[in-house]
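Entry 14. Ran structure prediction on the chain below.
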Amino acid sequence: MTAHEPAPLDLADEQALLSVERGYVNVIRARTAMSWLPLAIGGLVLDGALLDGSDWQGALSVGVPLIALLVIVTAPPRIWRRLGYRLHPTLLQVVRGWLFHTDTIVPFVRVQHIDVTRGPFDKLFGTANLVVHTAGTHNSIVTLPGLAPERAGEIRELIRGHIRSDLE
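Output, structure tokens:
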């Protein structure tokens, strides 16, 4: 390596991954519960309509809510543990997933604009989402959920400052 070559980035260093806020587990849990609610109601309706008087009556009324409860309790912490990010001097790296692992690297020079968004559950549990819009069409929006609102603002300002310095 010569004096003019930049030092290579060690993107494989798992110790450097930062985790998102622990409160994001509750956001995931609330969203998961909301998605299971129509299925539980459908199970009750189908149980009463189709299984009335059969040996299986009550199976959907009990089974679907039990499965929903199991998913609501076990899945969110696992999703949270597999979500991390890393800031480098010139890029943002977002890593998520286990079965379907995604490692997204966003060079700051490709960033078009940055948003910090907060939905109702984010406001309730004190989290925010950093949304980075990049040049291009395929995968041009990268979202980093579960940040503290202050941290999301700090990262937004850091990236915006880097973009400004590139234009000057």
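Residues 1-7 have pLDDT under 50 and may be disordered. Will compare against last week's run tomorrow.
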